[in-house]
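Customer escalation, tier 2.

The customer says the design service returned an amino acid string that "doesn't look like it belongs to this structure." They asked us to rerun it and document both sides in this ticket. The original structure tokens are below, unchanged.
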């Protein structure tokens, strides 16, 4: 269904590979108003690095996150976290905590809220990173969900118009009003004050400080 070739650039020749981390996220239409998003992360060591006689790669971490997301408001309504491989027996005890993702909006402040809920000892570093990589995939499914619905109903596919992003401060609607690129600014020097006899000018701020000290001395 999808390309399976490596998306990494070629490794330089002569280097020994030490570690491989792989992320995979896939989204499915579960209903007209529901997305199912599955994500996984896997860390592996190459054969023979830890155990000289081991012919197979060693999996250190393998975590899976499944999210049910309402559409089109993009709110998480259900979460399942599963650990396929983990380095310690206590690792899976954290999985139930990720139920706190339920009710979060993917569209508004999601990454910040995930850090608050699962940062540091409150969560698993790898599962938290996977959650932040998995949930935003729902944003990529707006047109796909509408196209899939139209296909089921035998209707024409919707126009592929990009979903509008929030307007950034300082950007004008009309590109003609955008600031011109290139170094057009010149440094502006602060005004200086000097005496009537042509003494070397003193920066205005320094002059005010000097005057303040003089007045303090007279009092």
């Amino acid at each position: 269904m999808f390309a399976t070739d490596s998306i990494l650039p070629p490794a330089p020749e002569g280097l020994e590979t030490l570690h491989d981390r792989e992320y995979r996220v896939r989204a499915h239409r579960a209903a007209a108003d529901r997305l199912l998003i599955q994500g996984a992360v896997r860390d592996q060591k190459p054969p023979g690095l830890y155990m000289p006689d081991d012919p197979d790669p060693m999996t250190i971490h393998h975590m899976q996150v499944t999210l049910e997301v309402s559409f089109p408001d993009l709110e998480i309504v259900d979460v399942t976290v599963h650990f396929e491989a983990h380095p310690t027996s206590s690792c899976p005890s954290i999985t139930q905590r990720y139920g706190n993702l339920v009710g979060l909006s993917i569209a508004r402040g999601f990454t910040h809220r995930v850090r608050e809920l699962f940062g540091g000892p409150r969560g698993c570093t790898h599962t938290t990173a996977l959650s932040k990589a998995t949930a935003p995939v729902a944003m990529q499914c707006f047109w796909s969900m509408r196209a899939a619905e139209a296909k089921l109903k035998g209707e024409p596919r919707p126009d592929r118009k990009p979903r509008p992003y929030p307007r950034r401060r300082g950007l004008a609607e009309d590109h003609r009003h955008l600031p011109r690129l290139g170094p057009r600014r010149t440094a502006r020097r602060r005004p200086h004050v000097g005496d009537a006899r042509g003494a070397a000018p003193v920066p205005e701020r320094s002059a005010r400080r000097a005057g303040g000290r003089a007045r303090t001395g007279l009092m």
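Tier 2 assessment: The sequence is consistent with the input. Residues 164-187, 191-219 have pLDDT under 50 and may be disordered. The longest strand covers residues 58-70. Sent an explanation to the customer and offered a walkthrough call.
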